[in-house]
């Protein structure tokens, strides 16, 4: 019991100062590239085979075929882990914005609907991803061709996951524009930066996916498979973006400033000084409420800022968020 109590206390200390949700997509990022590099390494160590026994005559092989032939259990486990982490990462961001652990949505009704739709599409997409991986592995081990089913399931997965991510990215655009106009005035705040990075990632992903499919359909197996490798490598960067989204940069900076005795002005008061009162005058009593927040909060009581994940300063004054 003492051990459990000690662990609970330490866990509380670990999570009380700032958020650690970023560790989940970071773990997924590590798992994805571990799988990618492991499959490439296994194929190279085995002599860059073409696996004639499995009717594979063109090199390089698709990563999915390498995994299904060489390490089927390892391959399926990592695909399942990725699917779980993908869904959890998307849900965690939504849930913690909802409860105020992260900056709340600027337009709650619209953004909540976008988040729900993104979660549904993402969950269904990952189900297709897992099903196609397991089914393809079974067929390949039975020495049966799985090209048709593989292409269909992978295409459905790609379409659904791109729709899911597009909806998720729109939420970041809305947040970035809101905080630029009404809160901190920064054009390149964290939400906007994240949105632009993700849009670039999404465009490149679509180009890779479409080009791979075109080569595949036209019978150009070698360039199709090379691009398939590039697609899998590029896809993993998504988890790096989610790690960036959830990493408490400003909270850590504020904690260091507090420890060094250099935190001269509370983050909340800085926020208030930057706010446009012309925007907030449309809400009855907002000015007085914000002044009250400023006077009541002590330095260090909250270490987040509006352009990065953290505690929502105005959680008790919902008018500001709409």
From TrEMBL:
Highest taxon listed in the record's lineage: Eukaryota
Transmembrane keyword on record: yes
Ranges annotated as spanning the membrane: 21-43, 71-92, 113-131, 151-174, 195-217, 229-247
Pfam families recorded: Frag1
Residues annotated as domain CWH43-like N-terminal: 20-249
Keyword tags: Membrane, Transmembrane, Transmembrane helix
Stored InterPro entries: CWH43_N (IPR019402)
Keyword ATP-binding: no
Protein name: CWH43-like N-terminal domain-containing protein
Organism of provenance: [Candida] railenensis
